[in-house]
Amino acid sequence: QVQLVESGGGLAQPGGSLRLSCAASGFPFSTTVMSWVRQAPGKDVEWVSIIHGDGIKTSYADSVKGRFTISRDNAKNGLFLQMDRLKADDTALYYCAKWPTYHSDRGQGTQVTVSS
């Protein structure tokens, strides 16, 4: 079955950086479009970034464009999100997810809190 395990969240100051990781198993990772999505308290799930199996074609939400970088390691079934210049509005529970089935095929999430 699909297993997605996120790590790397934590507390960061505004302007700081964090790197999220996701270990995937149970499906053909290298040919699967993957994503990071997030959910802030009281808000709907929001897609953050998408990456195709080739690791080249990527998309970003306007709110994170130029600050976040998505990448993947198909040899190790790993998905990553480098988050730079963090803002308070980035505070959320971040999920690694298959795209477009992110509502059902996602991990337990890792909390990111941006605060001074």
Please explain how this structure is put together.
- This protein has 116 residues and is mostly beta strands.
- The protein is 0% helix and 47% strand.
- The protein has no helices and ten strands.
- It has strands spanning 3-7, 10-12, 18-25, 34-39, 46-51, 58-60, 68-73, 78-83, 92-98, 110-114.
- The strands form two sheets. A six-stranded mixed sheet has the order 2-10-9-4-5-6, with no helix packed on it. A four-stranded antiparallel sheet has the order 1-3-8-7, with no helix packed on it.
- The relative contact order is 0.32.
- The mean pLDDT is 97.
How many H/I helices?
0
Low-confidence stretches: none
User: Shape, please?
Assistant: globular
Number of strands: 10
Fraction of residues in β-strands: over 45%
Rounded to the nearest angstrom, the distance between the terminal CA atoms is: 40 Å
What layout of secondary structure does this protein have?
Elements: E1 3-7, E2 10-12, E3 18-25, E4 34-39, E5 46-51, E6 58-60, E7 68-73, E8 78-83, E9 92-98, E10 110-114
Parallel strand pairs: 2-10
Antiparallel strand pairs: 1-3, 3-8, 4-5, 4-9, 5-6, 7-8, 9-10
